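ingest -> validate -> predict -> emit
validate: passed (alphabet ok, no gaps, 278 aa)
predict: started
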Amino acid sequence: MKVLPKLLLPLMFVFQAGFSIAKEPIPDKLVVLTFDDSAKSHFTIARPLLKDYGFGATFFITEGFDFPTNKTDYMTWEEIAQMHRDGFEIGNHTRDHMGISDAKVDRLPEQLDGINQQCEKHGIPRPVTFAWPGNATSHNAFSLLQQHGIRFARRGGAPEYPYAAGRGFAFEPGRDHPLLLPSAGDARPTWNLSDFIRAVEQAKDGRIAVLQFHGVPDTAHSWVNSPQERFESYMKYLSLNKYKVIAVRDLEKYVDPAIVPEDPTAVIKARQELVGKP
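emit:
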């Protein structure tokens, strides 16, 4: 067997591990800001505030509910296109806000294509990120998401925590599957600043806090409403405490979505044990 010179061994390691060297180190206080369901307040309230702070964000768009006819509670496609032109990311949340169960996976392509086609029509790039509607997930959907160019997909805080309180864990690259990004916090109308701080303070030691909002306020869905004044206090906290706030697509600066855990459920089970759930 040919023995390689010792000087070449470090170089071999560099080339083999090049994917990690090419990525930026994950800083503490890195937050990913996401908004679901095409709420009108994303355009009227969140958009100008985020622009003032210089924050990035992903807006996950669906034409579900009564989006086509109700322009009091939901954005128009022209407003969504303006969000893109303002520099925000437009993500895919399925055409009909259809929960993705194993039984419905075969309908996922038409659901993704419905939003992709509207994006193309309005000059918006094809989405590369996805939010699971209703926070339902199916591992059987992974290959279809990847075939449609989806790099990252965000879920909720369940099953580690119950849905109702909106609690969750920060994203741990290498342990969490890139198509199962957990929400460190899923804002609720009962939240106050301490709930928000609990979520974002998890952004340290290589973990990234992914935050999930709906309307700010949400005039169509009261159970996920965030009052405007409270949302404003959350964004002010991020600014004053010098958090870096990015869109989901920006994770690729720090995380390679091709690196996936062998068992996507392992970290979830470990966290369930940590919080005392069966």
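Residues 1-22 have pLDDT under 50 and may be disordered.
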